[in-house]
Amino acid sequence: MNIPPQHFTIGSLADAAGVNVETIRFYQRRGLLSEPERPLGSIRRYADADLARVRFIKAGQRLGFSLDEMAELLKLEDGSHCSAARAQAELKLRDVRIKLADLQRIEHALQGLIERCDSVRGKIRCPLIAALQAGGLDD
Q1: Could you give the angle at which helices 10-17 and 48-62 cross, rounded to 10 degrees?
Q2: Whose CB among 46, 57, 69, 122 lies 3.0–4.6 Å from 50's, allowing a Cys bridge?
Q3: What is the rounded CA–CA span in Å between residue 91 and residue 7?
């Protein structure tokens, strides 16, 4: 696709960023991306900076940042507030570590239930189903 710089339509912007048009519109409604002026009788055109902004947002989301967190990071986008960005990254890392611990707990519980299923073959009551019906898992 040979699109001149500074002249993306919303569709070509979405394609270049690897998102769909509704994502662009959603970012605009959330205030993460500005909506360019529409020249009289023409269509809106997006700039290279808009493409970079959408890619920035998507890269942050891949690291686990929410859109609210990305809004905060966008305020620091010029790169001159490294300590503030670092603080946000440290909070995200803490959250990730908490989620990892939860996932390890879930892994352990599921492994135990699977082992119990293997040990009761031929019996009518499945330990996995019974544990879920009881509303909890052994940690």
Answers
A1: 40
A2: 46
A3: 38
In the numeric block, the tokens 């909070």 are attached to: 91
Could you tell me if residue 85 is inside a domain? no
For CA atoms 40, 45, 49, 54, the dihedral sign is positive
pLDDT at 136 over 90: no
Question: Three-state SS for 8?
Answer: strand
Indicate the number of domains in the chain: 1
**Structural element, H or E, at residue 86:** helix 82-119
Burial class (CB in 10 A: 0-12, 13-18, 19+), 86: exposed
Residue 72 belongs to some domain of the structure: yes
* Strand-pair partners of 99: none
Examine residue 99 and state whether it is found in any structural domain, yes or no: no
Task: Tell me how far apart the alpha carbons of residues 47 and 67 are, in angstroms, rounded to a whole number.
Answer: 21
